[in-house]
């Protein structure tokens, strides 16, 4: 019963984060925010899992390091897109 309580809230939040990521496809900034929310929920789930098994939290620090790198890369893409196109709409951005 306790295990269900530990995993139910992070799973609900993860599904809500995925829903926000799929539904907000107009602006790049809103997609980046929903991706960061998903990464934080994954970190929370990893932290719960490692604490239940009495493992060290060294891997969670590596996960946080890579998530910070992912956030910096996303912000750099956002800044370059705003400098070249003037906004962060996906409709004005053409891949070709």
From TrEMBL:
Domain of life, source organism: Eukaryota
For biological process, the GO terms are: ATP synthesis coupled electron transport
* Gene Ontology CC: mitochondrial inner membrane; NADH dehydrogenase complex
Secretion signal, residue range per the UniProt entry = none
The record lists the catalysed reaction(s) as:
a ubiquinone + NADH + 5 H(+)(in) = a ubiquinol + NAD(+) + 4 H(+)(out)
Keyword field: Electron transport, Membrane, Mitochondrion, Mitochondrion inner membrane, NAD, Respiratory chain, Translocase, Transmembrane, Transmembrane helix, Transport, Ubiquinone
- A GO term for molecular function: NADH dehydrogenase (ubiquinone) activity
- Recorded topology in the membrane: Multi-pass membrane protein
| Root EC class | translocase
Chief location of this protein within or outside the cell: mitochondrion
Q: Where in the cell is it found?
A: Mitochondrion inner membrane; Mitochondrion membrane
EC number(s) of the enzyme? 7.1.1.2
List the residue ranges forming a coiled coil, or say none.
none
Residue ranges crossing the lipid bilayer per the database entry: 6-24, 31-52, 58-82
Entry-linked InterPro entries: NADH_UbQ_OxRdtase_chain4L/K, NUOK/Mnh_C1-like
Question: Known PANTHER family for this protein?
Answer: NADH-UBIQUINONE OXIDOREDUCTASE CHAIN 4L, NADH-UBIQUINONE OXIDOREDUCTASE SUBUNIT ND4L
Quote the function comment for this protein: Core subunit of the mitochondrial membrane respiratory chain NADH dehydrogenase (Complex I) which catalyzes electron transfer from NADH through the respiratory chain, using ubiquinone as an electron acceptor.
Similarity annotation = Belongs to the complex I subunit 4L family.
What's the name of the protein? NADH-ubiquinone oxidoreductase chain 4L
Q: Which organism is it from?
A: Drosophila erecta (Fruit fly)
